[in-house]
Amino acid sequence: MASGRRDIGREELAAAIERGDGVVVDALGPVSFAAAHLPTAVNIPPERVDALAPRRIPDLDTVVVVYCAGEDCSSSVDVANRLVELGNRDVRHYSGGKRDWTDAGLALEGSRV
């Protein structure tokens, strides 16, 4: 399979989370992540990708979905691109992020939800 990054929509992501498929990555800072994140997400901010990705995503063939706050947030693009550079073969970008997720009435996890 060729390495690369592609987009993923809310419905496809929600179904993957429900099935337990892949790893969901929140690309925001640790404080934002602790307050609210998509179900099952792990936190990998842009400045920590090299240190955290090998531990949180040990299998380079795992489907990885990266998101951040919303369409105007570039952290998820930075993290997704770096994961591809590190050899992850199936990286997907959820550009709508937390904003799109909550606008659709879907639940978040964290200390402020």
Intertermini distance? 38 Å
| Residues in helices, as a percent range | 25-40%
What fraction of the residues are assigned to beta strands by DSSP? 15-25%
- Give the overall shape, derived from the CA principal axes: globular
Sketch the major β-sheet: 5 strands, parallel
Would you tell me the overall average pLDDT? 95
Class per helix and strand makeup = alpha/beta
Low-confidence stretches: none
Please work out how many helical segments DSSP would assign.
5
Total strand segments: 5
* CA radius of gyration: 13 Å
Major beta sheet, strand line-up: 1-5-4-2-3
- Following the backbone from N to C, one meets helices and strands in this order, namely EHEHEHEHEH
Outline the secondary-structure elements.
Blueprint: E1 5-7, H1 10-19, E2 23-26, H2 30-35, E3 42-43, H3 49-56, E4 63-67, H4 75-85, E5 90-93, H5 97-103
Parallel strand pairs: 1-5, 2-3, 2-4, 4-5
